[in-house]
Amino acid sequence: MVADTYVKICGLRTPEAVAAAVDAGADAVGFVFAPGGPRTVSATLARSLGEAVPAGVETVGVFRNQPIGEVIETARAAAVTTVQLHGDEPLADIRMLEGAGFRTLRAFSADAYSALPADEKAGWETGRILLDAVEPGAGVTFDASAIQAQPPRGFWLLAGGLTPANVGTLIATLRPNGVDVSSGVESSRGVKDIGLIRDFVHAAKM
Ligand SMILES: O=C(O)c1ccccc1N[C@@H]1O[C@H](COP(=O)(O)O)[C@@H](O)[C@H]1O
């Protein structure tokens, strides 16, 4: 296993789930602001959930193809430390977010990332990236052979169909800096399971 794996638990909607993630040792908790999903929360709810999160743990707002002005306004209202862009957003949006004082994560489908020209990859790899399945938050794994052959050069997170049962093996095989999970710590879509959250963080940090 890889020591000090960064762990983000995403799609949190209750104080109990946030406390479980923090108590288990997660490095980040995620709140989904991309509209229309089972995990979508308001900035007001995220702000109140985030008040119980200690300073060393990142609070991440997740957005997908929303106008950058709206992203910044929502992230400020929610008082998150970090913005995750999970759509087709340009590098300029990452730069704007950095200028506004946020840490960032930019998500790609693993296939799309592997197909990027080297100079584009180099631009994204100056920041933190996240490699996921094509449909985010669906609990689906993907063929990671291209990533295994040519992993990103900077800090990167693995997501997509991770569970307490498979995360240890995937960390050992692909050696990401961290992992991000939503579906794999739920009892049903959008409903977090406290025991699975604990099991996932422990398995990822073993
Ligand atoms: O979880 C969502 O509903 C979501 C919606 C829009 C963009 C991203 C979303 N979640 C991200 O998906 C992965 C987790 O995937 P999985 O459910 O574990 O397979 C993670 O990066 C979330 O931030």
Automatic annotation (TrEMBL):
<keyword id="KW-0057">Aromatic amino acid biosynthesis</keyword>
<comment type="similarity">
    <text>Belongs to the TrpF family.</text>
</comment>
<dbReference type="GO" id="GO:0016853">
    <property type="term" value="F:isomerase activity"/>
</dbReference>
<keyword id="KW-0028">Amino-acid biosynthesis</keyword>
<dbReference type="InterPro" id="IPR011060">
    <property type="entry name" value="RibuloseP-bd_barrel"/>
</dbReference>
<comment type="pathway">
    <text>Amino-acid biosynthesis; L-tryptophan biosynthesis; L-tryptophan from chorismate: step 3/5.</text>
</comment>
<dbReference type="InterPro" id="IPR013785">
    <property type="entry name" value="Aldolase_TIM"/>
</dbReference>
<dbReference type="Pfam" id="PF00697">
    <property type="entry name" value="PRAI"/>
</dbReference>
<protein>
    <recommendedName>
        <fullName>N-(5'-phosphoribosyl)anthranilate isomerase</fullName>
        <ecNumber>5.3.1.24</ecNumber>
    </recommendedName>
</protein>
<dbReference type="InterPro" id="IPR044643">
    <property type="entry name" value="TrpF_fam"/>
</dbReference>
<feature type="domain" description="N-(5'phosphoribosyl) anthranilate isomerase (PRAI)">
    <location>
        <begin position="7"/>
        <end position="202"/>
    </location>
</feature>
<keyword id="KW-0822">Tryptophan biosynthesis</keyword>
<dbReference type="InterPro" id="IPR001240">
    <property type="entry name" value="PRAI_dom"/>
</dbReference>
<keyword id="KW-0413">Isomerase</keyword>
